[in-house]
């Protein structure tokens, strides 16, 4: 939340207003945020005696009963707005549906909306709060790796416009963010991998110690939901806690002096030079983590081509992407798309490319003095290099599916919308010989029957990561 101190004075030509906005928001690490004995979140709503929550349908299917019981235990009336937000539905109409619920609820000026979900949900609902009466408070409870590590750190909120990511938005700080990593117990492996890319981003350019930990524990972190799955080795869980805290802290240190992005040379924009346009180009969009991984891998090749990154460091970065199952290339990432994406980002960055690249690994510089011909030549080299890696640089489960888009609900076997999406994606996310690997929807099999068993295990504090029959997980 924010407060503004301002003055006005008369001048010879008229008046001058000068103001300074104080922005203050807190983060609390709290495993089991919706366990009745943990009253920290409920305390934020005691003043109002009620809660309007905005969440993803998939999250609600798994955690809805627990959330309702939590607020009932604390004697707070709860209304839940359930939405289905994917990149293709991260739009103004989706935002307006949230606004309708805020109006129906009669949200007051200082009363905080509770936003529960992944980065897509927190982005759209946060923008709705920024727009509603120009400034409505909200509290975030992120449920995905991207939500916990990346989206929760920034005060940026937005929706997509056309094929442009986050073209409409605002800077709007939440009152509070609760970081509960136990949500990762029910997050599909494909989504854990998706968020892993954001940690490669921050560590490659700003925190070598975190990169070293990611490199050491890569497969185990993804397989165990960052150490939160039953039976995860204690060593992996401790490493995950270090990675999460380091990553969030480093992101905050880089973001805090530049919350409104007045400075355009941004270390955390590594991987976000060409991906904002490219991510939504495929008929079935790429997951965000895979889109930025392609951008980061190409940027690493650019840095190596320019002598900014050694051959050993370049290989180490690309190898980590490959081990994590993240994409390093895509057929649609070609010279024409590269040029269009360059022209688009130049407008965002005041006519300078400001491409963040590692130099050396764990540090960052910005590249400006480069023409399209050189970029295209480096892209050709990059495509040849990644052919030497498993899957020729393609990622595992790289495309959005029901866990991203809300095409299906967790307890529904199939819908026409999912069938349509699957037809568009072909076999990209399905089958042993698929281009992008995986076995079925999210690699867990498509025979989804009911989430009752999952709810029962959640209430007992016992659930396996990637349980058979569990498809969508806690994803927004």
Descriptive labels:
6-stranded parallel sheet; alpha/beta; 16 helices; two-stranded antiparallel sheet; 476 residues; single chain; disordered C terminus
Q: How many angstroms does the end-to-end distance come to?
A: 23 Å
Shape: globular
How much is the radius of gyration in Å?
22 Å
Kindly report the average pLDDT value: 85
Percent of residues in helices:
40-55%
Walk me through this protein's architecture.
The chain is α/β, with parallel strands linked by helices and 476 residues long. It has 16 helices and 12 strands. A 6-stranded parallel beta sheet has the order 3-10-7-6-4-5, sandwiched between helices. Helix 2 packs across helix 16 and helix 6 crosses helix 8. The longest helix is centred in the middle third of the chain and has 22 residues. The chain is globular and about 60 Å long. The chain starts with a strand and ends in a 17-residue tail after the last helix. The C terminus is likely disordered.
Protein topology:
Layout: E1 2-10, E2 15-23, E3 26-29, H1 40-43, E4 50-56, H2 57-73, E5 77-83, H3 92-105, E6 113-117, H4 119-131, E7 138-142, H5 145-151, E8 156-161, E9 164-171, E10 176-179, H6 189-206, H7 208-223, H8 234-255, H9 275-278, H10 288-305, H11 311-323, H12 335-348, E11 355-358, E12 364-367, H13 372-386, H14 402-405, H15 416-425, H16 452-459
Parallel strand pairs: 3-10, 4-5, 4-6, 6-7, 7-10
Antiparallel strand pairs: 1-2, 8-9, 11-12
Helix pairs in contact: 2-16, 3-4, 4-5, 5-6, 6-7, 6-8, 6-10, 7-8, 10-11, 10-13, 12-13
